């Protein structure tokens, strides 16, 4: 039986020229080392200025390693600074994971954008295929040992200087340690800045995290430097125009029925809803939001899969399928608008929370994705739909960061319920991050609780974060009077 697996990776000069877009050498090793340092800075410290430094080192690793040369990859590397900059500005438990994920995703996309032909859309399509995503990273690990050996081979001057450099480090390290300790003991500010751990357990922890970061960077370098030698096969057609027509016609019929019931509910009013369902209008509004979002995501997935795996038919069949696709997208957009309206009704009754705010933003983003999908299916979108969706997603994330959502939630609830029993002070104090503290201190009741509990805030210069700094200053000015 003939094997369909790719041939094993052969390490050697010929294999390097076939597989690697960059010449393996000290640049690749330096990139891997920078990755280790970046991971250590990003993991062992609170989100703040060191997180931005870690991203900067990772971007520098892409430049030094030579795997970020295409125009699209350079643009993506530059865009990583957009969400990364908010790691220094915002201290929100809701925003930090999103900013970190966006930064990492942009770095991976920058590495995977290996050719102008595929662009960002091609890179994304490769990353969502398990084999295409993992194989370059695994292949890069096979070359690391030889890279280290080849980097030193034939360099007589380096081999001669290396022992002397090591002796110099052994002699200079104790002097440096004692000098830093003396200066740190003499000045509190310098001591807070250096804050260098000297214990063995800390050293082992640093070494472990550095090694983990080096391994991750090796995979990232592999994504950018490795050239696939096997052509990507087009998707296999699974359905024809008739099957697609049946599926889409069923979806359109279901959505039409749902939209009609919603029109009846809106025109008949809350009394009709309460009499028919047995629920208050606020309970009715809340009950269906997440189900509607799940239905919208399912519909989007169905349209995408049918478009990807449908056999081409006649021109008339293609027009019929396109009409059903566009009808499905329009009706789903109406459903998304209904879901957003329901959540606004619920928020008007019970107030705003981070979950409600984020679900509204997510629903609006899903609506924009449906518009992009509709333009793409109609041939009215010049760029790749994947690129457009990624651009919109990044824009939405930056807009949310600029809006300072935790402060927005606190201000809205205090303006509406401040001074009454309806204000959920425990939620404002315990569930919102440092970004909300200046706004929470505007309510006397919340101020009393917040000053009594007095959250611990890391406000050191070495881990500076603007949100934490503002919160610490606000607490000091109000609670220490």
Entry summary:
This protein is mainly α and 481 residues long. Helix content is 76%, strand content 0%. The longest helix is centred in the last third of the chain and has 36 residues, at 315-350.
Provide structural commentary.
Helices cover 76% and strands 0% of the residues. The chain is mostly helical and 481 residues long. It contains 23 helices and no strands. Helix 6 crosses helix 11 (200-225).
Identify the notable features of this structure and list them briefly.
disordered N terminus, mainly alpha, 23 helices, 0% strand, 76% helix, 481 residues
* Overall number of strands: 0
Helix content: over 70%
Radius of gyration: 28 Å
Number of helices: 23
Principal-axis shape: flat
- Rounded mean pLDDT score: 79
Question: In terms of per-residue confidence, which ranges show pLDDT below 50 for 5 or more consecutive residues?
Answer: 1-17
Tell me the span between the first and last alpha carbons: 82 Å
User: Could you describe the largest sheet, including whether it forms a barrel?
Assistant: none
Strand content: under 5%
SSE topology string: HHHHHHHHHHHHHHHHHHHHHHH
């Amino acid at each position: 039986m003939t094997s369909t697996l790719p041939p094993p990776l052969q390490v050697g000069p010929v294999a390097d020229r076939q597989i690697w877009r960059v010449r393996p050498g000290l640049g690749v090793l330096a990139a891997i080392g920078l990755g280790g340092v970046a991971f250590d800075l990003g993991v062992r410290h609170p989100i703040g200025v060191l997180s931005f430094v870690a991203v900067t080192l990772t971007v520098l690793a892409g430049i030094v390693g030579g795997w970020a040369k295409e125009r699209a990859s350079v643009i993506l590397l530059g865009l990583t600074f957009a969400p990364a900059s908010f790691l220094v500005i915002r201290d929100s438990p809701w925003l930090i994971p999103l900013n970190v994920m966006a930064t990492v995703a942009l770095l991976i996309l920058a590495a995977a954008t290996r050719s102008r032909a595929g662009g960002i859309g091609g890179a994304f399509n490769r990353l969502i295929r398990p084999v295409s995503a993992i194989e370059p990273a695994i292949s890069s690990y096979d070359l690391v040992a030889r890279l280290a050996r080849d980097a030193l081979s034939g360099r007589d001057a380096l081999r001669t200087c290396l022992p002397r450099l090591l002796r110099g480090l052994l002699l200079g390290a104790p002097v440096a340690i004692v000098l830093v300790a003396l200066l740190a003991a003499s000045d509190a500010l310098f001591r807070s800045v250096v804050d260098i751990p000297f214990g063995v357990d800390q050293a082992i922890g640093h070494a472990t995290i550095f090694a983990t970061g080096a391994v991750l960077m090796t995979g990232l370098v592999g994504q950018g430097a490795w050239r696939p030698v096997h052509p990507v096969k087009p998707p296999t057609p699974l359905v024809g125009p008739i099957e697609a027509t049946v599926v889409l016609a069923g979806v359109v019929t279901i959505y039409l029925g749902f939209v009609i019931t919603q029109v009846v509910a809106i025109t008949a009013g809350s009394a009709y809803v309460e009499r028919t369902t047995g629920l208050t209008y606020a309970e009715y509004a809340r009950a269906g939001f997440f189900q509607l979002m799940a239905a919208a995501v399912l519909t989007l997935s169905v349209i995408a899969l049918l478009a990807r795996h449908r056999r081409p038919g006649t021109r008339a069949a293609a027009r019929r399928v396109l009409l059903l696709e566009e009808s499905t997208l329009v009706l789903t957009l109406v459903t998304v608008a209904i879901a957003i309206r329901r959540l606004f009704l619920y928020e008007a009754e019970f107030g705003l929370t981070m979950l409600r705010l984020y679900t509204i933003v997510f629903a609006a983003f899903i609506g924009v994705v449906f518009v992009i999908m509709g333009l793409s299916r109609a041939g009215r979108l010049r760029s790749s739909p994947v690129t457009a969706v990624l651009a919109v997603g990044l824009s939405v994330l930056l807009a949310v960061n600029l809006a300072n959502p935790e402060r927005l939630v606190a201000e809205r609830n205090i303006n509406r319920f401040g001074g009454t029993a309806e204000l959920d002070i425990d939620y404002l104090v315990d569930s919102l991050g440092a970004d909300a503290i200046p706004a929470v201190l505007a309510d006397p009741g919340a101020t009393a609780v917040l000053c009594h509990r007095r959250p611990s805030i890391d406000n050191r210069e070495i881990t500076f974060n603007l949100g934490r700094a503002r919160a610490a200053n606000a607490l000091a000015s109000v609670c220490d009077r």
